[in-house]
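Hi X.,

You mentioned you wanted examples for the new student's onboarding notes, showing what a folding record looks like when two proteins sit in one file. Here is a clean example. The first protein comes first, with its sequence line followed by its structure tokens.
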Amino acid sequence: MYPDDFDVHLIMTSVHDVDDDWLWGRLAQPSFKYKIQEPKHGIEYITAIQDRSICESETPAAASHGHIVWDAAIALADYCQESKLDCKHVLELGAGIGLVGMTLSAMGCPNVVLSDQRYCLPLLEKNIAENFPATHPLPPRTAELQWGDDKASAAFKNVDLIVASDVIYNSSVFPLLYRTLDKIASPSTVVLFCYEVRNADLEAEFFAGLRRHGYTCDEIAFSSSQVEYPEEIHLIRVQKTERHVMA
């Protein structure tokens, strides 16, 4: 599948030197490097470690895909970089490896939390340790967050940006995700969902539900200077309005 000289530490800045099959083939790699265009505190690359074995208590019956950086996460990280988002308190939902949140930290965002279920936290912490030295002034931190848990959600204050990639593939958790957004987001909070279309009806149902609860949902037309994305990737900006109704 891969050329003999394919580097397991695939560097995203080499995108113009490799074809798309190489680039998207990174899913099979144990790690790859993602370029930070305007790094702060000397972090020029994020090394994404993809290691399912680190996810604790993971069983086939409740398998997670959080040990892989999916295409939508790269698209969202690229958007954050190219848009130069001005944010101070960021929460990544369903962070998995935490590429988007770590990218925002490397860009200089002072307060970034990477949240996921408990068994995903060891891999998140390993990725943070790999990329942010002990001398870094404000590394991202991890937090367990089970969607729908009001007590856990209440711990997040003054969040001005929520990011989430490929988290809307299971309709059974939509009410829980709505409730978590209700508890954490304010009308000034920007929420960015990026996803690859897998079930268009289900994804439309998710955003229709947000609109019913009084959120605006606007698609962002975005193209990256680093890579040409598959057409199935969409980026949606969500914001709470005065018409908001609790889930």
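Then the second protein repeats the pattern, sequence line and then tokens:
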Amino acid sequence: MSTSPPSNEKSDMVERPHHAHHHTSNMDAETRAIANADAKLSNPLRGIPHDRLMADVEIFAQERGLTHLLPELKKGALVAQDSTCHNRLDIFSDEEKRILTEEVTHRWRQTPTLYYMVVMSSLAAAVQGMDEAVINGAQIIYPKQFGIGDPTSKRDSWLVGLVNSAPYLCCATISCWMTHPLNHYLGRKKTIFITCLISFLTCIWSGLTNTWWHLFIARFFLGFGIGPKSATVPVYTAECSPAPIRGALVMMWQMWTAFGIALGDLIDLVFYFIPDTPGVTGLNWRLMLGSAGIPGLIVCMQVLFAPESPRWLISKDRYEDAFNELCRLRFSRVQAARDLYYIHVLLEAENEMKKGRNRVVEMFTIPRNRHAALASWVVMFGQQFCGVNVIAYYSSNIFLASGFSQVAALASSLGFGALNWLFALPAVFTIDTYGRRNLLLFTFPCMAICLLITGFSFWSTSETGRVAGVSIGIYLFAIFYSPGEGPVPFTYSAEAFPLYIRDIGMSFATATTWFWNFVLSITWPSLILAFKPQGAFGWYAAWCCILWVLILLFVRETKGKTLEELDQVFAVPLGTHAAYGLRQIPYGFKKFVLFQNPVPEQFYQWESESEVSSTGGDEKARREVKEDLEKANV
């Protein structure tokens, strides 16, 4: 769970963009708190005297029925206030000191329960990928059986696009908006169970259809398994993951979605050779569509043994249940108590943002929420209009158009899926170090170039040259997409919104991506008919360039901060951040074009510990801490 206070190097500092200060002189304190023009990011527990902190913990324990956990809660509150205090205080056992130290030195050393949760979430993502990919091979076969297979017919092209895009139409119009009520009343685990069960049943249903409109209906209902699951699983993972590796764990959603796409492409290739049997026409494409439901059934069994999100439990005032789940996700009870109390304090501070209006209205009227929504929508829209799903859904047809045989086209599609998965691996190590925003800014120009290579290759009069150019362009595109725009959008959207509107915000974000996914899926057959491949790929290359500018201006960095600390990051005024983005352009030109070594502008300044209330460190402070704890009877 991304709840532990910042690591030692950040916990003693306050983060502030130094360009924001000139906005503050004419603002009163309340206005600055709402707009966060100072962009301060600090631990709300810092500076509280220890006797008062212990009194606050006692009140918290009494109000929440946790008095039997008071010793652990007091220790946890001290660590939440100062992440290094365990090294100075004798109240911590050697084992507790070792575990708290290893949080920083061995960040990947986590409990089996946490990794079980990650495996389950990854398999749920694979369900998503297979649901999306198996139609890629099936569309080579089923249109002819259903009488909509004329490649020169505009009507048939639209109908094939409509059937292929049916799940995403459902996601954008209905199912994504069910995310909030499902999560509100049932929780994360039960929502995942229900959506995976729907995926299993509708995939079987799709394989039993006999008309294009029947297949459309079955695939439309598949959207009820895709939409809420895509909004819930990344949030669930983010709420259970430690901040230092949250990005890497949440991006498993996209990484294993890519694995599911590759697995779906492999299934397409294997089942392509299955002959029809007496009474069953199109057995191969039926097996392709039906097989995608099997992983969903496995997740339904897995989720029964997974922990519920502690944050969701806290939102329901189930603090003791949240503590028990945290004990499963952490090595020690002190860690669990620290996270429980720290979440509580940060959420209390977060609640001060609320203006008491409708939460949907507050997503647009409160600047912090509006900035998060804008950034999430940019990256979610970008995941579709970078052009990746044109290739994921129609790569078989694209390869056929360039001169491949049907079997070779399916095999080449498998190559794209495999690269999409394999090259997501580097992002596991870069998304929490290099950062979400930097990954996007680096990869989008590269994707634009790859799409242009793919489109321009169709002008080649040599079939060998055309096949080679298309293959190189598509495969290079997968290599650049996978560590950047692949994992970032769902990771970013899952962490961007405050808890009280997180389900609603994620519903809007996923509805954005699925709506444009539907638009892309339904329009591609007609787009390529009207613009030819050169114009169609050039269209999405141009969008990659536009999206690079939008990311530069409006997408903020979120790495390394707890979910609640991001409140201050997204409260930075929009104009301040956009101006910083524009100033990065000459820096990037000097560094990457002229190969100079310019000094990067530090948008965020860190105030030293001397500028904020200290909790100890020198001998005098050490004595003060001891005296405070003696007063508080710790």
